[in-house]
Amino acid sequence: MNYICKNMDDGTYIISLAQFRQFFPVTERVSMGDDVCLVHVRYDESLSVLRHPCRFDGFLAFFCTSGRMKVRINLTEFEVEENSIFVYIPGNIISVSEIDEAHKEDLRVTVIAMTEDYMTGLKMDVGKLTGKETALMNRPFFVVMDNERRIAGKYASLASDILESNLMYKRESISALLSSVFFLAGGIVEQQISGAGLKPSGGTDRCQAVFEQFLKLVSEYHTEERFVSFYAGQLCLTPKYLTKLVKIATGKSASDWIDDYVILEAKNMLRYSSMPVKEIVSRLNFPDVPTFHKFFRAKTGMTPVKYRKS
User: Fold this and answer.
1) Helix axes 170-195, 146-164, angle to 10 degrees
2) DSSP conformational letter for 92
C-alpha cells in the first residue's frame, strides 16, 4: 500500500483525492487542483491500491466502457461490466475484489472524483435530486442504455477537454457541467428504479430534506450516538416528529436507520480488522460486551465471533 494512505485502526485506509490521482500516470489523468479529477483507467498495477478496503474522502463515479471487475461496497459485491456506471458515496468502504484476469487488458474505466466540499458547492436544485442519494446507497450500480452511454461518453470527453484547457472561468464551467451530470444520473437512476418495480422514496420535499439531513448526521455520529433523541435535538425536532418524517420518506424508522449504520460499522470492523471484540464495543460506544452481543445477534442472527469466522 502506498505510504501516503492513512491506515485506520479498523483495517481500512483513508484516501484523499490528492492521493488518489497520484496512483495513475500523468498521461491518464486531468484535474483541477485537489477538487476534481478525471482518470482514464486501464488495467495497471496502480489498481492494486483499491484491492485493500479503503474509504475515499469524496465522491467517485466509475463509467466502464469495456472489460469487467468486481467492486465491493461495504459488504456487498457488485460486478461492474461494460456500459455500466458505478457511484461511490463518502463514508462507505470500497475495494476492487476481483478483476477478470483472462480479459484484464480490455479493462477501460473513466473515473470522475470530487471532494465532498466541492460536491456540496455545486449549484443544483437539490429538491429535484432528493431521494437519489438514498437510492444510490441501496443500488449504486446500473447498466446504461446505448443512448445514455453515448451521452455519458460526451460528458466525460467534454469534462476532460475543459479540465485540460486554459479557459477563463474554467472552475465555473466544470461546476455547471458536473451539476448537469448529476441531473442526468438522477434521471437514469429514477428510470431504472421505476423499471425494476422498486418503491421510490416518498413524502413531501420537507420529509425528504429532513431525512437527508438526518442521514448525514447518522453517517457522522453513529459510532457515538444510537438514540433518536440526539439526532432530533440536532435538527431541532422532537424524536416523535423526526421518526414520523423519516418513516414517511423511506418506509423505515429513524432507529432502524441508526441501527443499520451501527451494524454495518461493526461488520466492517469484524471482517476487515483483527481488533478484539472488546475494543469494537468501546469504539461503538456500547456500555459492555453483553449489550453489544445482544444487539448484534438480534440484528444478524449470529454472535460477533461467529460472524468474524464466517
Assistant:
1) 160
2) S
